[in-house]
Specification:
The protein is α+β, with helices and mostly antiparallel strands. It folds into two domains: 149 residues, no CATH class; 82 residues, no CATH class. It is 41% helix and 16% strand. The chain contains ten helices and seven strands. Strands 1-5-2-3-4 form a five-stranded antiparallel sheet, covered by helices on one side. A two-stranded antiparallel sheet has the order 6-7. Strand 2 and strand 3 form a beta hairpin. Helix 6 runs antiparallel to helix 10. The radius of gyration is 20 Å and the shape is elongated.
């Protein structure tokens, strides 16, 4: 792919995944988000702003390895199906597994969804790497396409961020005041979980990040992760003049 095919290039440290996904979701454009870290390349495919597929060059994240780890197939069955795949140009591993009678289509569909989610969630913990976004439809040839609403994926992915200090640094520190914003038009149908709704209702423009994390319905760390997701989604904003110099210490 030539460089002029990409409409956006950056690095994950400068522009984290939640911010990029929120932008793509806001405009509802189809395309491929590619993230590169060393020899590993992961791609997230989007249609109408929502996630439909994800791939990884990391062998440990392949469908076959995922199925072995999940106990759906054995190592011997993986080897046999992989050999068959290598002699079947253009075929998909999942298709081969179904034809061999090792999986039915229902189990394969569920496995593909979980595999895609695992690849996606892993990217929320990338703190470095290159990222690019290319506009255009892709993955029309996949047997199984999933649909993960991107807003929900952002919240779910942020909940899985391992380092809460990274979140609070991006949110401005313990003294930052958070203000609720009107629901963006493209998120009018986005349904919040009960704990998410309760946390958002606490945001009044007067409570600091520290106070919200401590008084929210979950642990301080969990509250911080959800508030960060809301900020990236444009549901709340941080008053830059209120940012504290001491970062909040949140429990995981």
């Amino acid at each position: 792919m030539s460089s002029d095919e990409f409409v956006y290039r950056s690095d994950v440290e400068k522009t984290p995944l939640p911010e990029i996904l929120a932008t793509v979701n806001r405009y509802g454009v189809p395309g491929v988000l590619e993230l590169v870290q060393g020899d590993v390349v992961k791609r997230v495919y989007l249609l109408d702003g929502d996630i439909i597929f994800a791939t990884s060059t990391d062998r440990g994240e392949s469908l076959g390895d995922y199925l072995v780890q999940a106990g759906e197939i054995t190592e011997a069955e993986l080897q046999k199906s992989s050999d068959k795949l290598s002699n079947s140009p253009g075929a998909r591993h999942g298709e081969i597994l179904v034809k061999m009678g090792l999986l039915d289509r229902e189990k394969l569909g569920a496995a593909v969804r979980k595999q895609v989610q695992a690849i996606l969630w892993s990217l929320f913990n990338w703190s470095e790497g290159q990222v690019s976004f290319k506009v255009g439809r892709a993955k029309d040839d996949e047997i199984f396409k999933i649909k993960i609403p991107t807003a929900r994926a952002i919240v779910a992915g942020c909940r899985r961020i391992e380092d809460p200090k990274m979140i609070t640094a991006r949110m401005g520190g313990r003294g930052a005041l958070l203000k609720k914003l009107p629901r963006p038009p493209h998120l009018e149908k986005f349904r919040l979980e009960p704990d998410e709704r309760e946390l958002l209702e606490l945001v009044d423009g007067k409570k600091t990040l520290y106070e919200l994390c401590e008084s929210g319905p979950a642990s301080a760390g969990a509250n911080a992760r959800v508030l960060y997701a809301f900020a990236e989604l444009g549901m709340l904003t941080v008053d830059p003049s209120s940012s504290g110099k001491i970062l909040i210490q949140v429990r995981g």
